[in-house]
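Justification of resources, computational component.

The compute hours requested in this renewal are based largely on the per-chain cost of generating structure records like the one below. Each record pairs the submitted sequence with a full structure-token output. That output is archived, and it is also reused by downstream analysis tasks.
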Amino acid sequence: VVVAISDWVNQFPVVEATGMQPLGLLASGGIGFLMLMLLKTRLRLAGLLPIAAMALFAGNAKPPDLIISQSGKAAGMADAQGRLALLYSKRDRFIADIWQKAWPHGGEGDAASLTQSCDKDHCIAVSPNGVRVELVYNPDLLDAACESADILVAPRLRFVDCDGRKPGLIIKRDDFDSKGVHLI
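The structure output for this chain reads:
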């Protein structure tokens, strides 16, 4: 019976990718299904309310202000309209394609309005709310980035030593190795 049901579901046409969904969708559905399963009286029907509330959460996912892949090669930032703008659109196409499917209008954001300069060794981007993010791939450029960045990302460097002004957040190679993708 399970195989017959899976074959039946497999025949449905694919309309579009669902993308990333907000946490409220999972929480609402989980609470509703728990109420339906665990309660013994008619009170269990109250679980239908959180399940019905799932419709309020569906499709409302917005991209994070900053996302950096585990390798540090791909990076994206939300533009003023809330769309994901890829800072390095040519690097790590596999990850960039996933991000484009995960959020509505993914990758369609205006990266030119966010970046001050972007090359293979160093990328400076300023978020719509004024946070300066610097991605440093060349260790020789680290000192200048330490002085001016609010968020410093050094995906190739295990040790980041900022002697003068310290950025509010420093993400280095060890952070990517232990925590993976960073969503800020």
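The longest strand covers residues 122-126. The beta strands are 66-68, 75-78, 84-86, 115-118, 122-126, 132-136, 151-154, 169-172, 182-183.
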